[in-house]
Amino acid sequence: MAAGKEIKTKIASVKNTQKITAAMEMVAASKMRRAQDQMFATRPYAQRIAEVVGHVASAHPEYKHPFLIERPVKRVGIVAVSTDRGLCGGLNTNLFKKALNQIGELDDKGVEIEVVTFGTKALGFFKRIGAKIVAEASHIGDSPEMSQVIGPVQVLLKSYQEGNLDEIYLVSNEFVNTMTQDPTIKQLVPVKPSEDTELSHHWDYIYEPGSKEVLDHVLDRYIESLVYQGVVENVACEMAARMIAMKSATDNAGDMIDELQLIYNRQRQASITQEISEIVAGAAAV
Amino acid sequence: MANTIQVDIVSAEEQIFSGEAYMVYAPAVMGEVGIAPRHTPLISPLKPGEIRLDMGDGKEEFFFISGGILEVQPHVVTVLSDTAIRADDLDEAAAIEAQKRAEEALADQQGDLDVAKAKAELLAAAAQIAAIKKLRKK
What we know:
The complex is a heterodimer. Chain A contains 5 helices and 6 strands; from the N terminus they run H-E-H-E-H-E-H-E-E-E-H. Chain A has helices at residues 2-58, 91-108, 120-128, 146-161, 211-285, and strands spanning 75-81, 112-118, 132-137, 167-175, 181-189, 206-207. In chain A, strands 3-2-1-4-5 form a 5-stranded mixed β-sheet, with helices on both faces. In chain A, helix 1 (2-58) runs antiparallel to helix 5. By secondary structure, chain B is of the alpha+beta class. Chain B has helices spanning 88-107, 112-137; strands at 5-11, 15-21, 23-28, 31-35, 42-56, 59-73, 76-81. In chain B, a hairpin with a 2-residue loop joins strand 6 and strand 7 (76-81). Classes of the chains: A alpha/beta, B alpha+beta. Chain A binds chain B through residues 38, 41-42, 44-46, 48-49, 52, 56, 116-117, 120, 123-124, 127-128, 133-138, 145-147, 150-152, 154-155, 158, 203-209, 213-214, 217-218, 221, 224-225, 228, and chain B through 8, 10-15, 28-30, 40-45, 69, 71-72, 78, 80, 82-84, 86, 91-99, 101-102, 105-106, 112-113, 116. Strand 6 (206-207) of chain A pairs parallel with strand 5 of chain B, so a sheet runs across the interface.
C-alpha cells in the first residue's frame, strides 16, 4: 500500500492548496467591492474636470497652453499601471503585451520612449525589456491616494513642458465588469478636447486671475486625475482578476482531488483483490 | 427653488457634498468670493481655506479644503477640491523622490531578476520531475 499512501499525502496537499485559493478568492471578492466603490467615488471629480477642460480647450482663450498644442512626435512618455502582486491571471501579461505592441510600433518610427511605472510588476517588466524608466511608484496598496500619483506624473509633465516629450500615454486596465478587464492605451497629453461639449452658444468663463494661471492649475489636475483613475481602476481589475483566477484554481483543485480519490480507490480495491486471490491460491495449494 | 444654487464639492477620491444653497463663499486666490444664484460663469483656483454654504434659515455648512478649483455656472457651483496639500516645491519634491526610486530600482539589478531566474529554473525542474514520473509509470 506504499503507492496508496503516496496518493493520500498528495490528496491532502492539494486539499491544503484548495483551502488557500478558496480563501484568497473570498478576500479578493470583498476587496473588489471596496475597490469598485472607490472607483465610482472618483468618477464625479473626473467627469467635472473633464467637462471644464473640454470647455476651456474649445473656448479658445487668448492663451494656448502647451498641453493643448500638438507637436511632431519624437519622444513619447508612457505611464504604465500594473499590480504590485501576482496571482491575478493574465491581467498584467495582457497589458504588457498591448504596451509592447505599441512600443514596437513607436520604435519602428524611431520614436524614443520614457516610462513611468506604477506597481512592481510593471517595474520588473520594463526593466527586463530595457526601457528607460524615469520614475516609479510601487506598493500602492488596496486604496491608492492622490498623493502617491502626483510625484511620478509630475516627472513626465515637467519633461513635456521642457520639450523633451511630445506625447504622453496612459497604459492601464479598464474595468468592464467582473469577468472582463480590457487593457487600454489612452493619450493623456496633448489633451484632446472632448467632442460632446456643446459649442452652440459661445460663452466663456471669467478667468481669475488670468486664463494662463487657471489653465495651468486645471490641466495639471486633469491629467493627474486621469492617472489616478487609472490606478484606482487597476486595483478593481486586479481584485476581479484574482477572484476569477482563484475560483478556477479552486475548481481545478477539486477536480484533481476527485481524480486522485478515484485512483486511490481503484488501487485499494486492486490490492484487496490481489490479497484475496493470494490467500485463495495459498489455501488451494495446501 | 429659484433663489438657490446647486453646489457640488468633489475631490479626486470622493464626493464630499452635493445639494442646494442660497449662497456660496469660497477662498479664491484673488480673495474670498461670494457666489449667488445666476452668477456669471467664472473659474478660479482656490487657496487652502474654508468653503461656507448658506443653507437658509441661518443654517450654514462648512468645509475645509486644501486648495482646488472653483467653477461657477449660472445654476451650478462646482468645487474640485485637492486631497493633498499642494505647492510647487512640494510637487517637485514628490517628483524627485519618484525619480530616485526608479534609479534605485534600476541600480538594484539583482533582487527581482534573481527571483525571476530562480522561478524559471524551478519551473523547468518541476517539468522534468513530471516527465520522469510519467516515464516511470510506463
